[in-house]
Design brief:
Number of helices: 11
Pfam families: ABC_tran
GO molecular function, one term: ATP hydrolysis activity
Helix content: 25-40%
Family: Belongs to the ABC transporter superfamily.
CATH architecture of the largest domain: 3-Layer(aba) Sandwich
Shape: elongated
Oligomer: single chain
CATH class of the largest domain: Alpha Beta
Strand content: 25-35%
Protein name: ABC transporter ATP-binding protein
Keywords: ATP-binding, Nucleotide-binding, Transport
Structural class: alpha/beta
Number of domains: 2
Bound molecules: adenosine-5'-triphosphate
Number of strands: 14
């Protein structure tokens, strides 16, 4: 696979009267061709700064960036025609229809108007194309925004929080659209806080925290490298579950009680659970690792700022203490 987007060692320091703020601190990212790539990070971690820097809207202090193999910002004019981006919510004139809006944008961008029905079809707005934008739902306005970015048939589409403010139906529509675009060969980079969505639609992710990459790779690699040490424990019917949980808790286990089972959150050695219980003639009927989802990984990685001068990659084991080792 070849990279559509490469960023390495990106630094951005904002200086204001209130002081100096390091927004990007040696940030790296690689997005491969044809992928839907999720860009995740908590509020203020540097996502928008990264996207704005890529698009030449902010000047970085240091680092290298390339889009479609061309160094940017120097050669941005050469690749700009192949990049569609929505980094700030575009404002549309409510009295114009989607069709008129896109036709005007096509004229302004030197794009053939014949492209307008095609993008309306792509984003699922064809049937409502002649209605005024002010009658549209938020989800439809978001899709119109995507349509405007698609006019020039970009090879790379960059979207900052495209699902923001959408209800579950709108989010589902956006998910289908992203997949369709990717299936058509486009590379999509999207930032989002909605981690369940990212897990569903993205092939790969980069997680940023405090201006640095803390994880990157395919969604399955990132999940696999942060397998949770939580296990679910179910006991034989009729066994005193509370007593068993208390026994383990006294031994240092982090117990969460559920209706018909409990979980041990820090079980780095699950055998210790069966051993302790069996010593009291309590036998488990189920001992299952609880798999981590992207949200667990995100919280674990971004809960603490990365150590100075390091980027933790998916292949680097996270050292964390656990009960029962
Ligand atoms: N123009 C600016 N002047 C000073 N500081 C700024 C400016 N823009 C952003 N910052 C700061 O830089 C850091 C990164 O901000 P950025 O907007 O890139 O984060 P983000 O990950 O996009 O956050 P969010 O998810 O909240 O949009 C934050 O601490 C923010 O307060």
């Amino acid at each position: 696979m070849t990279a559509v987007l490469e960023i390495s060692g990106l630094r951005k320091i904002y200086r204001s009267r209130k002081g100096v703020r390091k927004a990007l601190d040696g940030f790296d990212m690689v997005v491969e061709t044809g992928q839907v790539h999720g860009f995740l990070g908590p509020n203020g971690s540097g996502k928008t700064t990264t996207l704005r820097t890529l698009l030449g809207l902010i000047r970085p202090n240091d680092g290298r960036m390339a889009i479609l193999g061309q160094p940017v910002p120097d050669r941005l004019p050469q690749v700009a025609g192949q990049v569609g981006a929505i980094v700030e919510s575009p404002q549309f004139f409510g009295n114009f229809s989607a069709e008129t809006t896109l036709s005007l944008l096509a004229d302004a961008g030197g794009v053939n108007r014949l492209r307008v029905p095609a993008v309306l079809e792509l984003v699922g707005l064809r049937d409502r194309a002649k209605e005024r934008v002010k009658t549209y739902s938020l989800g439809m306005k978001q899709r119109l925004a995507v349509a405007s970015a698609l006019l020039k048939e970009p090879r790379l589409l960059i979207l900052d929080e495209p699902a923001n403010g959408l209800d579950p139906g709108g989010i589902r529509e956006m998910r289908t659209l992203m997949r369709d675009l990717s299936d058509s060969g486009m590379t999509v980079l999207l930032s989002s806080h909605i981690l369940g969505e990212i897990q569903l639609i993205c092939d790969s992710v980069t997680i940023i925290s405090a201006g640095r990459r803390v994880a990157a790779g395919s969604v399955s690699e990132v999940l696999a490298s942060h397998t949770s040490s939580t296990v679910r424990v179910r006991l034989e019917p009729g066994v005193d579950m509370l007593g068993a949980a208390e026994l383990l808790r006294t031994a240092g286990a982090a117990i969460t009680m559920e209706k018909d089972h409990f979980t041990v959150g820090n079980a780095s050695n699950p055998a210790q659970i069966t051993k302790l219980l069996a010593e009291r003639q309590i036998y488990v009927s189920e001992l299952t690792p609880v798999s981590a989802d992207l949200e667990d990984v995100f919280l674990e990685l971004t809960g603490t700022a990365p150590v100075d001068g390091t980027n933790r990659q998916v292949d680097q084991v996270v050292a964390k203490g656990g009960w029962g080792q």
